[in-house]
Write a structure and sequence with these properties.
The structure is a homodimer of 393-residue chains. With 393 residues, chain A is of the alpha/beta class. Chain A has 2 domains: 170 residues, Rossmann fold, CATH 3.40.50; 206 residues, Dehydroquinate synthase-like - alpha domain (Dehydroquinate synthase-like, alpha domain, Up-down Bundle). Helices cover 48% and strands 13% of the residues of chain A. Chain A has 15 helices and 10 strands. In chain A, the strands form 3 sheets. A 6-stranded parallel β-sheet of chain A has the order 1-8-5-4-2-3, with helices on both faces. Chain A has a two-stranded antiparallel ribbon with strand order 6-7. A two-stranded antiparallel ribbon of chain A has the order 9-10. In chain A, helix 4 crosses helix 5, helix 7 runs antiparallel to helix 8 and helix 12 crosses helix 13. The first copy, chain A, is globular. At the A-B interface, strand 1, helix 8 and helix 9 of A face strand 1, helix 8 and helix 9 of B. Strand 1 of chain A pairs antiparallel with strand 1 of chain B.
Amino acid sequence: MDNFKFYSPTEFIFGKDVEQEVGKRLKQENVTKVLFHYGGGSIKRNGLYDTVIKSLNEENIDFVELGGVKPNPIDGLVYDGIELCRKESVDFILAVGGGSVIDSAKAIAAGVKYDGDFWDFFDHKTTVKEALPVGVILTIPAAGSEGSSAAVITKEDEGLKRGMGSDLLRPVFSFSNPELTYSLPMWHTAAGIVDMMAHIFERYITKSENVVLTDRLLESTLVSIMEAARVIITDPENYEARATICWAGTIAHNGILGVGREEEWTTHGLEHELSALYDMTHGAGLAVMFPAYMMYTLNEDIDRYYRLATEVFGVPHDYEHKERVAEEGIVRLVGFFNEIGMPTSLEEADAKKEDIPKLIEKLKINKGESFGNFTTLTLDDARAIYELASEEE
Amino acid sequence: MDNFKFYSPTEFIFGKDVEQEVGKRLKQENVTKVLFHYGGGSIKRNGLYDTVIKSLNEENIDFVELGGVKPNPIDGLVYDGIELCRKESVDFILAVGGGSVIDSAKAIAAGVKYDGDFWDFFDHKTTVKEALPVGVILTIPAAGSEGSSAAVITKEDEGLKRGMGSDLLRPVFSFSNPELTYSLPMWHTAAGIVDMMAHIFERYITKSENVVLTDRLLESTLVSIMEAARVIITDPENYEARATICWAGTIAHNGILGVGREEEWTTHGLEHELSALYDMTHGAGLAVMFPAYMMYTLNEDIDRYYRLATEVFGVPHDYEHKERVAEEGIVRLVGFFNEIGMPTSLEEADAKKEDIPKLIEKLKINKGESFGNFTTLTLDDARAIYELASEEE
């Protein structure tokens, strides 16, 4: 187990109807003026927008609104948000939505308190020294941004999708009501499920040794996610399954399951080029890239993949044929992704094999000539993984 | 899954040599004067006392000392600590030790900021509204107090051992270096292991339904604890096993494994009477009381005990004989406790069957005529459980 720091100060408020208390919770923070930040029309259609407005008004909390965050949130709206917060002397940002809204809120929160261009954080030219506090009402369990230090923003002009992180950006509070996810289309539910599973894989498929406790916690969470996903397919209003998915998405990325381990974000990096080029749903891109990455790196640590296969996917033990067992685990992962309606090849995700050179070009800008810690990948390796992802069977 | 709030703002700093940074970490808190609170001579013998003094001096941090905390910490020293903090204008308490030291620190932290008698918190006459911040260097993985909101203090004159909790008492930071536990005698190591397992049982043996994710997380932690314990018996300086125990002890009680579940603290209550009457090590008392409680309540929820037996203790499935399987799980738990040198009957723990009326008398004062939520126990039930615990086989 490696030395670690773990710091997750977010207050998680979870369950039925909890979002109705958001005004009261904000009152505790002694806010002067709130930026109510959200995405498209879904929160207006499902009544959450009205719930929030009512709760803010009941507590006489002054606020301004900024909607319009898109999936793969863009820099343009972040600049707008920073300007609005400064003009209106906003001292708290309430993000109501999924990871895109929360990430946009975090970027604004850091940008407001920074004299330079907020993109400097994503260029890793500087780190966050101060930020507005952010609170969350979560509507899409997926990115785990409600409990994480991370944010990912796309610089639209250049097609660059990049992440950064700071403990100062961990939300102060996070409301999550599983019932709010009943109306989420299966596509978004499934993409969110892939995203949280990917957050676990990035912690699980590493070279860290002697981390049996977190190995088991990661495996337990994966098994629970898949079990709940299979319930939701036929019963989208099953509270318990939705609750499992909501909470699993949070713990998959707030750090608790990865303490003392290396983390490996290579597959996320490979996927970011897909979602930047095609505006692809992040989870769909991960469903395409993860099996390909796993197959390509199988022999890097056959025991790790063997353990994944047996402990998570229920492949029977066969120590004489470890590689076969390990591969069968990946085959079952692909089967699961298909079962929940996710694409598992570039073509199924409406991406094109002939665009691979473009992906590699952007990858070179974002990640350099080589990257990764489970194994070091060159750009040639990355090309081979994209090619593996494009082979329709 | 029940609605829940989960809030664990403690910064956990974990691994080799981390305690050397305590001065730097305190500096971040802008402290004026620190109370350095500890127990007996063990930290002087193993060098930790000197490490702390050196680190405080390097950062020019002003401090006063208060040692002498005993296992089952008593009210007398808490009063001394409160007086000392007021006299010396202390604004931060650094607890260096195990649960007893940390609990004593928490009681002082709350007491300093309260005009009345600090015991009012433990009498549940009032709740904590304000407290000094507390930081921790953990030396005994057991109570989980380094990450919890709870504290337990014994009122010496009346032999009352009581607990209370407040999120204001969650430590600001907690250092844990598994190497510091190498020199811990096996008895204390084992008692700590029982304590953390008990914290898991109090969350696991409940009537909460549809909590499969936390069921699995709890089971994973139990399995990992027992596996590591068996390594430590023969190899007390095995870093990885010690690290597993240290971190498991923290997550067993900071709340993360119990979200959305009922909690059941009845067995802790039954044990508190033992440690109050005999000054028994808390973990040893729990090793005596838990199997008895489980056996007595077996038919309250046979499926729960069946699951415990099969998932944690590896008892083979036999749906035709659920009760036998469930009982076998408890038998294996007793076996494990014996394996690590813990007593599993009153007599083995130097307690006497004829004292049961005294235990019941105190229990009545502390818990009333009936208590519990997994099942409601009367004082007659409690008597039967103590009697069950006294049957030597």
